[in-house]
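cron nightly-structures :: item 1 of 1
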Amino acid sequence: MSSKIKSLSTLVCVGEIRALVFDFDGTLYESNAGIEQQLRPLMVRHAALALDVSIEEAKRTLAGYRAKYKSSVLGLHRHHGVDPETFLRDMYDELDLTRMEVRQGLRFELERLREKVPLIVFTNSNRSFTHRAIKLLDLVEIFDIVFTVEDNGFIRKPEIEAYEGLFRSLDLIPGQVAMFDDIVSSLRVMSDFGSRTILVGNGLRPKPSFVDLHTGEEHEQAPEFVDASTHDLVSFLRKMNAELEK
């Protein structure tokens, strides 16, 4: 692992990697906070209320819109006049964040890292929740840019358009970007684009295993296409900073 960290740090030092991108949920805080597990039921319930239909009908409707438009909320907007931003804000406002915990040392290591390279958040979550959670995690003023689902027209990872929007907004080619994410299927897309990828354990599986909460797929170890992996993000960043400061 140390050789992979050294290689990644070297690419930052020589300017080949010009941005470090971090997924948010399950990456900058652990998934045992229960946030992701709350989202699906909340979305279905809010859709059922907005459309005045049963929970089962809301599930079918959302699935159909996701398949057709690559975004459930875009379908709600086009067919029912539901405002996507308001819908998501109201939904995310109901989340229970009491189990979200600050990772000790994370702010310090990110601050050190930011002196060498811009830090970006790239999340499927909405703007109101992401900034509220960033404050709770004591990460305010750490990230140069925070990309939320609104910034890509409500298209979410792992849809190709979301990544294309990221690269376009950063004005960087994929090879100039490295991404930290707990979702293997998301990193696969980034790797296919040509970005460096770092798989982060989301706290739901012991080392060396990982679980992809998007697909439900279990991984006994990091897939071969992943450039590096860690179950301890703070330690990984600390070692990166040590390499960068040599």
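cron nightly-structures :: done
The chain has two domains: 2-32+102-244, 35-92.
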